[in-house]
Structure formats: C-alpha cells, structure tokens
Amino acid sequence: MRSGPVTGDTGDAPGRAGGGARTPPAEPDHQVLTSLLGAWALSACSAEETAAVEAHLTVCPRCDREARRLRDAVGLLHTDGSLDLDPMLRSRVLEGCLGRRPARIPVPLWASPYDAETARLDALLRDFGDAEWHAPLRLKWFDGERQTDRRTTVAGVIAHLLAVDGLVSAALGLDDPLGGDGGALSPAERTETYWAATGRPVTRAVREPWREQSHTLVRTVSFAGRGVGELSVAYGDFALPLQDALLERAFECWVHGGDVAAAVDYPYGTPAAPHLHRMIDLAARLLPATLAGRRRSGLAAPARGLVTAGSPGRSLHLEIEGKGGGDWYIALDSPAAVGSADHTVAQVALDGTEFCRLVAGHVPPVEAAAGQEGDREAISDVLFAAASLSRL
C-alpha cells in the first residue's frame, strides 16, 4: 500500500484578495533520498524517484560519493545471467521485512497468497511491450467430460482476471468493473460480457485497473478486521467464504500467470510452499461437493450406502508430494461425510504442481496420477471431479 505525500495549499485561492501563488510540493527529505541510493544504483527506482535522487546528488557531496561507490559495486556484478528481476523478489523482501517488524495493519494470512500472486504477475507484466500484450494464447479448462479452450491474448487474460475478481469487489461493496450488470453472472459470463463491452481487442491499458483493483481488495480486507473472511462471495451457481474466494483468485492468478509467461517464452515459478499448500487444501475441500454434483448429472458412479452428516464414510487418500504437499482424505459418498484414514478404499499420489495443473484443467484426468492403488472407479471419479473444478 503506497500513499504519496500530501501538501497543503498555503497560498490564497485564485480570485481571492491577495492572489498568492500556491506553494510547490515539498521535495523528499535527505533521509528519504539517502535510503533510495541503493535502488538508484541498481536502476530500480521509478522515474520520479530517479529524478529526485539525481537532483539531490548535485547538491549533496556526501550522497554523491556514496552513490558513486554503489554504482561501482554494481558494475562488479556478473552480467552473464538474466537481468530480469526474480518475480518472487517482492515476496521474499516483504517476508524478511515483516519478520523483523510486523506491519501495523498486517495482511490477513488467508489473503497473503492473493497479494503475492497478483504482485508476481504484475512484475511479469511491467515491462511488456505491445507485441507481448497482444501475444495469442489459449485458456484451457475441463467442461465436465472433456478439455476445452478459448482463444484470447495476454491482455484478454488480464481482463478475465479483472472481471472475475470483481465478484470479490462486489461482495465487499466496492466498485465492480461490470457495474450493476454483473451481479448474477457466472465467472465465464462475466468474462464474456467484459470482453464484449470493450468493443475491440483488449490493450495494455487493462493492467492499471486490474492492479488497482487487487490493491484495493488487499487493503480493504486488511482494514476490515475479524469476521470479514466469512463473508459470502457468490459465483453464480455456488458461493464461497471470502477467505476461500481470495485463495481461489490467487490460484487462478498463478495459473494464468503461467499461461501468460508461456505465451511470451518466459519462466514462471510456483507459489511459495505455504501458499501452494493452502491452494491444494481448498481444492481437496471442494472435491466431495464437486463429486456429488457430477453424480447427480450421471457423470460419476452412484454412492454406496447412506452416510449420516459428520460421520466417516468411504474415503480416497490423496497424497500430494513435493512442494506444498500433504495428505487429504476425500469423502466419496457424501459431502456431509468426513474423510477418514480408517475407511480408505483407494489412494492416489500426485506431485503438488501436477495436481494443480489437473485442477486447472491443463492436464487430462486419465494422464494425471503418478501412483494409483485400490478402487479404480473411485480413483477415476475423484480425478475427473478434480478436473471439473476448472472453468473459464
């Protein structure tokens, strides 16, 4: 969260007696400019910060000497590697800073993945030219029985994120990018409506409202206090608590960040392990209800026996390996049942990233599992349910 300096107007207003001139904005003080020297030496300052630092160096010999020393040190760095900033740099710096001095108004733990993933994607987008913004790509998802896709561009992907993030904005009483027309629309309908409303190919101009919206969401939930995480966010035919909705938005931001990076041949890593674990946990918690929905549509095998609410029933052991991994027990016969290790009839082992690719609809269910054991029908039903969590 950033806020610029606010300066008062000590002069007389135009037209009043005296007609005094307005006082120009105060320049940053010496301490602020000194703290920017390291970033200036690395060419990491904004244009405004660069101008202020360089103007200061002409009148402050001590800072000028320090700036020259830092620039010389930068020149000793190896230049045979990539000069692009690590997309995870912001997250690591914030983690280190907050470890030494917690924020006065900290971002809630459940909102941290969204904050981190929107920042990572924004770091990727920052230096894109028009060619990158209009690079073609295909958004992929699983429509219940088969994979499908939709052609768009990098700018179109950011417009998609903006439109669907608007569901969370509306739930918080903030501005919705679709105005009053998007309240009852599903995420896919919101996206198509927003794309159609532009009347032309989406351009790089979409980055600013998307990033401003994400900043506003994080700032709002940080100041809202306890209880806001339970606020319901409507997705058309279902709803999620706000804390799960922001986690779902973080997951989609990461997935589409990977789509964007692939479209411009740029590497893009996975989320931090704690964030990835929370994303996997959300998908695992949604699986029983998704499986029940597929069963009602005739796309999954019938339940075997009645299970009372809160009692253990047949379960599938989902073992996620690697970064963000863990063990989950998926209730097979009712979303009201409790998954239990004592009632396991099948086991599936998957790498964490591969499981997320399955949930995103990027991997066919029949190709997903690295290890399978037990009831083959239950395994197939759960893998297809996982893919069915994806959507446009």
From TrEMBL:
Protein known as: MDMPI N domain containing protein
Ranges where the Putative zinc-finger domain occurs: 34-63
Domain of life of the native organism: Bacteria
Organism: Streptomyces nitrosporeus
Keyword Transferase attached: no
Keywords for this protein: Transcription, Transcription regulation
Pfam families, per the entry: zf-HC2 (PF13490)
Disordered: annotated span: 1-29
UniProt xrefs under InterPro entries: Anti_sigma_zinc_sf, DinB/YfiT-like, Znf_put
